[in-house]
Each structure stands twice: as C-alpha cells, then as structure tokens.
Amino acid sequence: MAKVSAEPKRRADIVKATIHEIGVRGSLEVTVAQIARRAGVSSALAHHYFGSKEQIFLATMRHVLTIFGAEVRGALAAATTNRERVEAIVHASFAAGSFRREVVSAWLNFYVLAQTEPEARRLLGVYHRRLSSNLIYDLRPLVGARAPRVAEALGAQIDGLYLRAALAPARNRLDRTAAISLVLDTLMHELED
Asked: Virtual CA dihedral for 77, 150, 103, 180, nearest 10 degrees?
C-alpha cells in the first residue's frame, strides 16, 4: 500500500501558523521558530518545506490570494448580468473572512514585503491585474471605452476602503456594509454618466 505524504498537511499548517503569528505581532517580525512551534513542526522541517522565511511568507500570501480568488469566483457564479457581476466582485472584496485580524495583518504586511521582494511585488501585481481585468470585462458592456478608467477607480476605492475599514479604531471604523455601499454608489454614478 502506498504511503500518503504528510507534506501537504504540514505545509498548510505552516501557512496557517504564519497567518496567525503575523496577526498576533502585526508585522513580519516573526521567526521561523515561532511559526514552526505554532504549526507543531520543527524549524528544520519548515525550512525543508519552504527554504526560507521569505518563501513561507510568499506561500502564505498565495494562500490568502487563493481564498480571495475563490470568494470572487463563488460570487461571480451567482451573478447573471454584467452589473450583478461587478457588484459580486465588490461584495467579495469585502468578504467577512478578509476582516479577520490575522488576514488584515497578512495583507498589510504583504504590501510592505512587495516594496522589497520581487516575488511579492509580482504576486501583488497579479492581484491588481486580476481585479482590474475582472472589473473591465463586465464594465465594458456597461460603460464602453471608459471601462479601464472606471475599473481603476473602483479597484483603488476597494483597496482604500479596505484599508480604512480594517485599520480604523473600532469607534470610527467603516463597516463592511458601508464600504460596499460607497463603492456601489461610485458604480451607480459611473453608470449614469
């Protein structure tokens, strides 16, 4: 009988532990030892699976982006019109799971890592291009040649409102519903032009 490798589960455990540790500390100032301890593996095994702390961080961001992509695909599957599809992308961009403290910390630190790490910068570019292309695809029938500009405006508003909603003190925090409403108001305004 073939032996099933424990590697996929251990890799997933390390990624989840990384998200947790980044969330606890609010920064990338975590050690492989801390991540490994949280995952229940040795530091040597974490290094064996990923090679370096930076590679662990990159795998973690791929995981976060994969979850976000699944949210978007799920939302798009339920939409039938172009407008519903744009609205679905907006709703998925503010999914409840994206507002867990550790996920917020992972996203924020991902932006920081992208300033110095080429692979992180590439992954961030992939996220931005996919968001833009998804929006443009469904905006084109609605606003014609203005679709790229409108997509850029909506994408910037999504990212900016996410940061505000995620980072503001609780008493001043913009909630997800209000953020979605603001982006959809912008969409409505663009559709009226």
From this structure: -70
